[in-house]
Amino acid sequence: MCSSRRRGLPNTVKYKIHHQTVYHYAEPVRRSVHELRLAPRSGPLQAVQAWELQAPGNLSEARDGFGNIVHNFTVSGPADTIAITAIGEVQVSTGHDDAGRDGHHAFRDAPAAGEARVSPLYFVGGTPLTAAPPEMQAFAAPFLAAGHEVPALLALAGGIADHVRYAANTTHVGTSAAEAFHLGSGVCQDQAQVMVAACRAFGIPARYVSGYFYDPAATELASHAWADVCLDAGQDLWCSIDVTHRCVTDQRHVRLAVGRDYQSAAPVRGILEGGSGETLQVNIAITPLAD
Fold it and tell me: What are the transmembrane regions (predicted)?
């Protein structure tokens, strides 16, 4: 287990984040509708101090049933380039509760007063991307046989990281947990979805998390994914597990959105008319700031 105390990390870290996504098209897009989950929300693990989105259209803002901040915009004219930029500052801390199950590894993520949000039990149900075939259930069973306290979850995460080895460019955004498990390789998205699928197969609510990870030596992980596992649905008590790094999340992690799988937490989604020959450029810069 790689807790923040063992790594000697400070209690809080403030980051400046610059995230640009640029789509280029050989044939111009005639019309497109876009949905963004590129605005983090403040919560028990982080405080958003400034955030701005820039897009080629008027942005409308709403909250989805998971509590995510969602923006939408439409491009109504021909376009051979669509650029989306997010810039902001986020203060990250351990944020874990000292009381309750598993002590400082747990955090409460209850909806704010007046906010409608799905029950944690909604995250028990599977999706096409998070279905667990029999072989995955058999793999997870020894780890979860005695319950799903944090040590068991970390052991399961380590087992998944060993079985689904991190390897870039071996999967794509439509790869399911079952496919990645069978292949034996994937990226953080795949490892997180296998964790989610394995927990749900045993009736444990789990959700996919998209976000950022700060490590100047591993810039390919700046855009990252991990899993939240519910420890107590009645108390909205969760534990956030980074399968790729085999640890509970810490001050290196900035949360963007949660969902049932990648599709419902994706930073950018869209529907296009025209626009063949798409190429994508993503640039993310994460800079620690002095308090």
Answer: none
